[in-house]
Write a structure and sequence with these properties.
Shape: elongated
Strand order of the largest sheet: 3-4-5-6-7
Number of strands: 7
Distance between the termini: 17 Å
Order of helices and strands: EEEEEEHHHHHHHHHEH
């Protein structure tokens, strides 16, 4: 827990959504406690869960395995098209596009663990999922409001806050896309103008731009594809999930056995789901 606005604030370690649910996760003394709000007979039902965190696991893996495979295929295909397009641009305009785009992918794999591919996987897996995007945005708004205010906000209060979050997995994946965009801009430099001085100047400016983007969390806006402005009901689902989660985790901190006795189900989630919002 952290102190905020003279009151205790529960840390939210992870949050993820589906088309009809919002799940929040927090670790307490080595155990993972989760709270999920979901649609039930046109009402909002809140469930208390104990989460089992496993490498590569997913709460929704069974239902979405085919879709995930398709999304991975589309992501790899997108990356291949970008690289081939870079070589074509280099051939036509005699610039360094091919070198910079390939360099962007190499830098991404070294520093961001392949976030460009992960970005495209998420993009294609969430394509046309408007309800899930809205709940995702609602969750960000409610958590951002909670972080700022120090208490569970109402739907009206949460509506005023940002639908983006630097702690979101999609935002973190956007770091590689920032690299790709910057290297794409550099790629238009003509090969005949490349000198040691020009190389130092161009890459120096690129590093400064990247530092500014990273420092102020501007990369989070590149995850625009994963969010959509939520309505009152979607905000209410996120609020209910957070309110129930705060009560459940507070109980776990003060009396773990009592909290565990109220667990309604056990869920299995991945490390990514447990540690990103």
């Amino acid at each position: 827990m952290k102190k905020t606005n003279n009151c205790e604030k529960i840390r939210i370690d992870g949050a993820f959504t589906t088309n009809d649910s919002v799940t929040l996760v927090t670790e307490v003394n080595g155990k993972w406690f989760a709270t999920r709000s979901k649609e039930f007979n046109h009402c909002i039902k809140v469930e208390k869960c104990e989460a089992i965190v496993l490498e590569g696991a997913s709460l929704f893996k069974t239902d979405y395995e085919t879709e995930r495979i398709r999304a991975r295929f589309m992501a790899v295909l997108t990356a291949i098209v970008l690289i081939l397009a870079a070589f074509k641009i280099t051939a036509v305009y005699k610039n360094i596009m091919a070198v910079t785009i390939v360099s962007a992918f190499c830098i991404d794999f070294i520093f961001w663990k392949g976030s460009i591919i992960n970005y495209f996987v998420k993009f294609w897996s969430q394509f046309r999922k408007s309800q899930e995007k809205a709940l995702h945005a609602a969750t960000h708004k409610v958590i951002n409001a909670y972080e700022k205010l120090g208490f569970v906000p109402s739907s009206v209060e949460a509506k005023r806050y940002s639908k983006f979050s630097v702690d979101c997995e999609n935002s973190k994946n956007s770091l590689g896309i920032c690299t790709l965009i910057i290297m794409f801009a550099i790629g238009w430099v003509k090969g005949e103008f490349i000198t040691p001085e020009m190389t130092v100047l161009v890459y120096g400016v690129a590093l400064i731009v990247y530092a500014i983007i990273y420092k102020f969390g501007l990369y989070k806006y590149i995850s625009y594809y994963s969010v959509k402005n939520p309505n009152k009901h979607e905000l209410a689902m996120a609020v209910y999930a957070l309110r129930g989660h705060i009560e459940f985790v507070s109980q776990a901190i003060t009396n773990e056995e009592e909290a565990l006795s109220e667990v309604q189900k056990e869920i299995v989630i991945s490390k990514e789901e447990a540690n990103t919002i």
